[in-house]
Amino acid sequence: MLMPAGAPPTIRKISERHDKVFVTGCLEPQINGPRANAVLVVLARNQELEGVVQSIKSLERHFNRWFHYPYVFLNDGDFDANFRDTIMNYTSASVEFGKIDPSMWGYPDWVNVDVAREGIRKQGDKVIMYGGMESYHHMCRFYSGFFYKHELLQKYDWYWRIEPEIKYFCDITYDPFVHMERANKTYGFTIAVKELKETVPNIFRYASAYKRNNNLTSQGLWEMFAEPIEDEENQKSLPIDDPKYKPPLPDEILNTQAGHSGLPDVDPEAMEGEIYNMCHFWSNFEIARLDWFRSKEYNDFFNVMDRSGGFWMERWGDAPIHSLAAGALLGPKDIHYFRDIGYRHTTIQHCPANAPGNRQLPRPPYLETTTADEKKRKEEDDYWEQWDSVKGNGVGCRCRCDTDIVDVEGKQGSCLAEWVAVAGGWASA
Fold first, then answer.
1. Which are the contacts of 372, defined by CB distance < 8 A and separation ≥ 6?
2. Per residue in 281-321, pLDDT tens?
3. pLDDT of residue 260
4. Strand, helix or coil for residue 93
5. What spatial distance separates the first Cα and last Cα of the chain, rounded to whole Å?
6. Helix/strand/coil (H, E, C) string of 329-362?
7. Which of 60, 198, 274, 286 is catalytic?
8. Contact 261, 189 (CB under 8 A)
């Protein structure tokens, strides 16, 4: 059932068998506390400056004004002086600007460029979302198998991905990197959703074949993304009011056949009787160990996926690549759900309810100096002083959620239930 726009999702506690919220409510930030060897990474172009400023302002207000983690900005071209100078005005943290080497962006030398571009053109003709945008394919491949190899990231152990035009809703008064390190976590997410089926018709065939060919046994996370084929058949006999019933997908998605557009099929047995349920961690927000991405196991996985041609002949995103690699190589204990971090990108948001009791501490004002008009600066800060009411089992710190859209957990396509199932289920109390 869809909830009214802006209403927080029903607050149910998740089992803490494999994972738990790091901090419920607010803390006094440890301004001089220990820091992880971590970086905030932004991939952007000069024309995206306005959206980047929106993101940096939000992150600085809600987190980095206390913790001062460095930024690395990456671009497949050159950042102009206006971009560089403007960014430096919005943070007191150190900033580095880097250019992506052509070996990490564009077509590799083993690809037939004419065939790849024809594949992309056909996706555009079929109106597959972003499928006809050559640069989008390059970006997905870069974030799948190259960002962690960039020279500016080599000195870091952790990264937090920042996209243009994002918004945070809650104050993050603890250090996520330090808590990830202490809990021996590898990968953190805040939203899990389903991919568009027409963008990845063959991706699971190759991921499953990799898992089988390397004799990998699930550590319990693979099941978040895979489900037995018989479950799909049983769907047909379920009544429409059954909670397990899933409405049929549109014909244009169901008619998408594996192996189209010149992508070679993998033996169906490689799928081992499973199908991809389209779930993935929405990777435009992720906090992760860079040594996992740099590992031989992850890079072997990426190379298999890359050589299939799916980044060109289909529109494989980095989100399902990261997620299926995690499913094959990690377990639920290695994953952290940042349930307490409110986040929005485009029309998808997760915003937690505020923690009850004495867990909402007074908020230090943040009159950021880039707004020249003093009245507007005060109005902006006053907006965040009026945070949402608390709710039982809430976990957020001074959250104020947008009310113009439904929270992702209240929409079809959310994969929260799939995460809960592998994380140990809903807590009984």
1. none
2. 999 999 999 999 999 999 999 999 999 999 999 999 999 99
3. 41
4. coil
5. 23
6. HCCHHHEEECCCCCEEECCEEECCCECCCCCCCC
7. 286
8. no
Active site residue 286: yes
**Which residue(s) pair with 162 in the sheet?**
42
Cα atoms in the Cβ-side hemisphere of radius 13 Å centred on 184? 5
What sections of 3-94 are H helices per DSSP?
Answer: 49-59, 65-67, 81-88
Q: What is the pLDDT of residues 226-239, one digit of tens each?
A: 998 764 455 555 66
Task: Spell out the residues 6+ positions from residue 319 whose beta carbon is closer than 8 angstroms to its own.
Answer: 195, 280, 281, 282, 283, 284
Where residue 80 falls (left for φ over 0; alpha for ψ -120 to 50; beta otherwise) is: beta
Yes or no: say if 417 and 14 are a contact pair by the CB < 8 Å rule. no
CB contact at 8 A, 13 and 393: yes
Q: What share of the chain is helix, strand, coil (3-state, %, to 5)?
A: 40, 15, 50
Owner of token pair 């989008």: 136
Query: CB–CB of 143/40 below 8 Å?
Result: no
pLDDT for position 229: 79
Q: What pTM was computed for the model?
A: 0.88
| Cα(186)–Cα(161) distance, integer angstroms | 14
Sign of CA dihedral 111, 114, 119, 123: positive
pLDDT of residue 319: 98
Task: Give the closest residue to 411 by CA, choosing from 191, 162, 168.
Answer: 191
Q: Where are the beta strands (DSSP E) in 117-276?
A: 158-162, 166-168, 187-189, 192-194, 226-228, 274-276
Rounded-to-integer distance, Cα 99 and Cα 46, Å? 12
359 neighbors 352 (Cβ within 8 angstroms): no
Distance, in Å, from the CA atom of 389 to the CA atom of 215, rounded to the nearest integer, reads 50
Instruction: Tell me how many degrees the CA angle 302-304-310 measures, rounded to the nearest 5.
Output: 85
Evaluate whether 36 touches 290 at the Cβ level (below 8 Å).
no
